[in-house]
Write a structure and sequence with these properties.
The structure is a homodimer of 454-residue chains. Chain A has a seven-stranded mixed sheet, sandwiched between helices. A four-stranded parallel sheet of chain A has the order 8-7-6-9, with helices on both faces. Chain A has helices at 44-47, 53-60, 70-76, 88-94, 115-127, 141-152, 163-168, 170-178, 192-195, 205-218, 231-250, 266-280, 298-301, 344-351, 362-376, 382-401, 419-426, 437-445; strands spanning 7-8, 18-20, 65-67, 84-86, 99-104, 132-137, 156-162, 182-186, 222-224, 257-261, 287-293, 303-308, 317-322, 356-360, 406-411. Chain A has a domain at 70-111 and 232-437: Rossmann fold (3-Layer(aba) Sandwich). Chain A is of the alpha/beta class and 454 residues long.
Amino acid sequence: MSDNQVKFVLTERELPTHWINLMADLPPGAPPPLHPGTKQPAGPDDLAALFPLALILQEVSAEPEIEIPDQVRDVYRLWRPTPLYRARRLERELDTPAHIYYKYEGVSPAGSHKPNTAVAQAYENAQAGIRKLTTETGAGQWGSSLAFACRLFGLECEVWMVGSSYDQKPYRRSMMETWGATVHRSPSDLTEAGRSQREHPTGSLGIAISEAVEVAAQRSETNYSLGSVLNHVLLHQTVIGQEALVQMQMAGEEPDVVVGCVGGGSNFGGLAIPFLRRVLREQATTRFVAAEPAACPTLTRGVYAYDFGDTVGLTPLMPMYTLGHGFVPPPVHAGGLRYHGDSPLVCGLVRAGLVEPRAYRQNETFAAAVQFARTEGIIPAPEPAHAIRAAIEEAEAAREGGEPRVILFGLCGHGNFDLSAYDAYLAGELEDPEFSEEELAEALAGLPEAPALS
Amino acid sequence: MSDNQVKFVLTERELPTHWINLMADLPPGAPPPLHPGTKQPAGPDDLAALFPLALILQEVSAEPEIEIPDQVRDVYRLWRPTPLYRARRLERELDTPAHIYYKYEGVSPAGSHKPNTAVAQAYENAQAGIRKLTTETGAGQWGSSLAFACRLFGLECEVWMVGSSYDQKPYRRSMMETWGATVHRSPSDLTEAGRSQREHPTGSLGIAISEAVEVAAQRSETNYSLGSVLNHVLLHQTVIGQEALVQMQMAGEEPDVVVGCVGGGSNFGGLAIPFLRRVLREQATTRFVAAEPAACPTLTRGVYAYDFGDTVGLTPLMPMYTLGHGFVPPPVHAGGLRYHGDSPLVCGLVRAGLVEPRAYRQNETFAAAVQFARTEGIIPAPEPAHAIRAAIEEAEAAREGGEPRVILFGLCGHGNFDLSAYDAYLAGELEDPEFSEEELAEALAGLPEAPALS
């Protein structure tokens, strides 16, 4: 590598051929999801109304690697492999001996890592003869990714978009429509769930999920698609970390710490899993940091318990850190991180001490994002701004300790649709919204009855 | 190359080391710019109040190649080399035997090709001891690029943004401010020019140029920066075409036709010049197509004459195709193409028959853009949608003729900030705004007195 190289690029030939399934490397006996009614372990059959068999098999697979279908790799080629950068300008600004690297997923058509799984899910549904996918979306990152993926495989796509976002972020809606999707404001009059929630006109992710699930469950040619949390979603995202592993080798460095933001866990998992497998196999001693918002501190303040994945209680009970499915996070701009729970896989790794969670307040993440934009050029989305904040913290610790440190973080999307938040920050008008201890206690008191987790 | 390769990537090692100056390959005797007062050839001294010597020397250079400073290449590394794609999915959709390639500049921090020259201009101004750059911006592509570049070289940046855009596109303003620039709504009260135009509260590019030039001309530590039209701007953009030339060789193909959209000419010139030089040197027989809006048909309906570069007549007289400096193009969304004139260099090539201009109406360009987005994934800016329309026309001609054809076009930016226009198009509410023949005749009647051009 040259002395001033900043970008590590791979050719199409180096596109990963397999996804990495970390379940194969974890000790057996992980708690299973439970049927929401019977509280018995939920099996593949319980998911068949919503997901095609191929994805269900991926969800429960014990194989260490799963081959990526050629048709999925053909779509990945439109933007993958993605670049890995060394943040030399940020390092100089921080006056740190640390080396900071970031893997950038904002080059995808939808501008984030979400298409990595949207394409895989659309493909498997099309193979299974499904005609339409339904989903929910908050700020629109996931809905636009699925709209794009459905278009390429000839599927219809119907998106329930959280009412407040629908009103405030018309451009994400335009993006979905440009790719041919139908977008509804949620709560809508099209579903029982929506009609029952007319008193909450601004909507919520929980309501939107209920609407999308209700429609998919009723129609045989329609399935539902989820953009995070589940094992198969994290699986698809492992293309990120696999490429980063090769690119770090090109840079001739071994990361001491891998950092990602966590909402549902798929961005963090996608980057970290290939590195985590090396730690589990005792080939490396990497640390892992999961950065979340202080306004929705699932991993740092939640309890480890069975809880519903959605607000109204339609989904299986998942073993995870949770703030309670009734918890409504205050309105931070990092909409992708406003989730009461987290991927069971990531939660298990936190529980096992392999992943260290940290929570950051909104203003400190925007300060980090602006510092990053002014040195590295890219304006980050509010979600990865949390990872930037944690990476800067690591770099400052290296400076204070006078020690070298190699930091790799995931820059999972650009902030082109989030500039009103930057506006507020630069005007000194950005809030650090908080929840009350009473709200959290009340949500935790509403956890469903279920076996305790060890 | 593999049978299904779609992306041709270069490493930092393959970043161009020189810019290409086409002036060296053109026959001598090109008409010079004229001083607006004396109507005598304008020399380097006439530009010294606004530009540093290094850029003036580039503007008038007869050297075939000019070395890119290391510090400029170091910034280019943040996003360059940019990818070249084969549009296999679009080809299939069009059922054409043509091979369609596109060079994508939307991966830059500002989302277009503009940073290629912004960085070079900011660097040379910083080297010359200048503290601040002023400029105008319409929709904000150029202003955000210069804001980014100034930040990296420690310069202040002051942008006059056309009033109507300032009101309608707050996110581009936020982007400039995130990179640390000061943004004024034009017409402003800060300048004589602005105060004289209070009766035009929505502003115009011409007024904004006058404000930025007025401030730069009055202060010794402040210079002005222009984002297109001039020779040195086209020079800086030739990194695009040089990379594309190497990438087409990687693909094993020779373009039959190179297509770009034209506003001021720097995007078109940047892609085409390296290919044009091969034609001038009789190493190739490539055709060139310049795509412009029918609402501002400079190359297809303008006259070839001396005219001012700005509306109020402060700049030198430039030899170019022009609709008259008083022509106010109707409000198409491709704001970057709404310019009454064009680069004298590009105009000379059109005049010589080397470049074929074509004009397209707004709705047909958006139809092409949506077709592109639904096959290739990237949502294009309204400006390169004109190039896409022309490229599709070429591909359809190949299909009708039953003949192979290799098409290369420039995709100079993404449309993330233009989704309201897509909204209007998808709703069937997009207009094809027109000017009246009287308006055009009146603007042409207002051309300044100057020597006729042959």
